[in-house]
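Field reference: sequence -> structure
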Amino acid sequence: MITQDIAELRQHALDLFETTLADVPLFIADVDDVEPDEQGVWCVFVVNPDTNEEATIGINSIYDQRGTANLMITQPKGVEIATSEYGAWDIAEIAMRHFRSLTGDDNRLRVIRTIPSRIPNDDGLQVNLLILYRSRHTS
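Structure field:
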């Protein structure tokens, strides 16, 4: 259950960064070595599974898995964003739209809320997009 959710959420992030945000470096936590780009915007994506509760009672119980994913977007201080490039808030907005549309390959995983926030950082602008998800599994 958990590994399926992590894989599906990671793939959804990779799809976004391979198409719409192809010029923005994306690092997947626990997979990639993070190598920050001090001259441009870069992102880290991490999935954090949380509660797992039985949703039904019976022979074929259904379990409700909830968790969060974080897209951490860093725009170093002094980095000017050209009109043809994306800034941290632009990336957050694009990612919100992308993740809100996620219903999963078999409709068992869906994003239930996205929450952008600014994280205080003396080295530049850091925006965190919190992505709350829920999935249902039979085992």
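Note: Residues 2-18 form the longest helix (17 residues).
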